[in-house]
Amino acid sequence: MNKTIPALVLCGLASLPSYGMDLLEAYELGLKGDPLVLQAEAKRNAIQKNRPISLAKLLPNVSFNGDYTQNHTSTQNSYITTQQFTDVTYQVGEFTLRLSQPVFHYDYWVQLWQADNQIAQAQAQLEAAYQDLAVRVATNYFNVLYGEENLEVTAMQLHSLDVQIEQVKERLAVGFSSLVDLNAIQAKRDQVAADLIVADQKLNDAKESLREILGNIDIDLAKVPEQVALNKPQPEDIEAWRDMAMKNNMDIIAAMSGAEVAKQAIDVNFAGHLPTVDIQGTKGLYHSNRPPYGLDNDSETIGLYVNVPVFSGGGVNAKVEQARDYYAQAMAQVDQQRRATQRQVKDAYRGVFAAIGEVGALATAVKSAEVALEASQLGFQVGTQSAVDLLVQQNTYFQSRRDYARARYDYLRNGLLLKQAAGTLARDDIDAVNALIHRPHAPGLLSKQPPLPGQPPADEPPKATARSPAGRKLEPWRVP
């Protein structure tokens, strides 16, 4: 690999625009263009029409039909003397107005109640889609930021190895190093060069995943600072979060509404055993001017029509049993969703606490690895440590920086997942996380280049220090 590549990567990352799209802007863009959200909105809008469709069956139905014809008859020969050699033209008009009012249709009423549950289910699914969008946008947003930091730190590691190779060559020329040291560093350099290609590919994959949600846009994101306020979930009780989820989780609400729809379908099919009653009335007009006398007639009818099913070949019974089986399936889905939600709550709750501990531990690990690396570099220069010892310490240092970056994003993501599982994730929670976003971009944890052996102190970047979390507090986990 050309040694100018890591330098170009570092320059490219350093030259990012001062302002990028923050998390809230990405979420709002997703609301407008994410296909999954648009599908859920269209489905909800379509299902809302079920109520007026069902209500229409209970209201009067009025229809009108009529016809008006002109007729011409010509008779050349007939046994009736008066009809011989006649040529007659006449008109006939017939018009009917019909009115039908359902009086008793049990299935119509059940379908109206069923429509309300269908709408409730679609609304819950839409709310779940909004919450899922927030989590997907945040997850992919953080994946892109981590990919940028991973690419940057890998480029720094490659640059550090290039510098070490040049130094070892100089030391080798004066007899202070061996070919073993040179070969060890060169082998590591080749491995990191391959890692840089992989890191670049993973960053591009993360950007494409975000574009899948937001659309075909340029991905330039505002950064999250290296120090994040680590707040514990409130209440600090996993059972309280579980109880909240059982009441508010949108997937559970949608499943329960779906079970009610399935339960009412039993009554809809059972109505096939019940009689139906309708009031029907007609108003008719008939006019004909056919010779010799023509005809005009007005008619009115009104009646109560009762239909009593007697035998349908067992089809109604089969439909009822089928609906009961579907209801049993729907209730099993509710139970499955409750269990899945409990697992999600517990995973996210424990994930928040694990991330809090991991962020604190890795912040200390970064500082410790930096101190150990500096000591190893000094030992290598004076001949008390080998190149292999230096490479081990260097690898530990860079890996701890990657892990620290990942842990910060895991903390934020798990907090959103906990809110989602509890069913309380809202725009305010996105606002709370978005308050942490750096605008403009400030040097993050990985903007510091690691110390290189032999560099003069004036060229060294400032050392990383393990500081306690500070800045704006993020409290997206408090129960409203």
Structure report:
The chain has 480 residues and is of the alpha+beta class. The chain has two domains: 4-56 and 110-273 and 317-459, Outer membrane efflux proteins (OEP), CATH 1.20.1600; 61-104 and 280-307, no CATH class. It is built from eleven helices and four strands, in the order ααααββααααββααα. It has a four-stranded antiparallel β-sheet with strand order 1-2-3-4, with no helix packed on it. Helix 5 runs antiparallel to helix 8 (250-270) and helix 7 (238-248) runs antiparallel to helix 9 (315-382). Residues 1-18 and 440-480 have low confidence and may be disordered.
Summarize the structure.
With 480 residues, the protein is an alpha+beta fold. It has helices at residues 4-14, 23-33, 35-48, 50-56, 106-173, 179-214, 238-248, 250-270, 315-382, 387-422, 427-434; strands at 61-75, 86-104, 276-288, 295-307. The longest helix has 68 residues, at 106-173.
CATH class category label of the largest domain = Mainly Alpha
**Major beta-sheet overview:** 4 strands, antiparallel
Element order: H for helix, E for strand: HHHHEEHHHHEEHHH
Shape: elongated
Strand order of the largest sheet: 1-2-3-4
List keywords for this structure.
single chain, 480 residues, alpha+beta, Outer membrane efflux proteins (OEP), 4-stranded antiparallel β-sheet, 12% strand, elongated
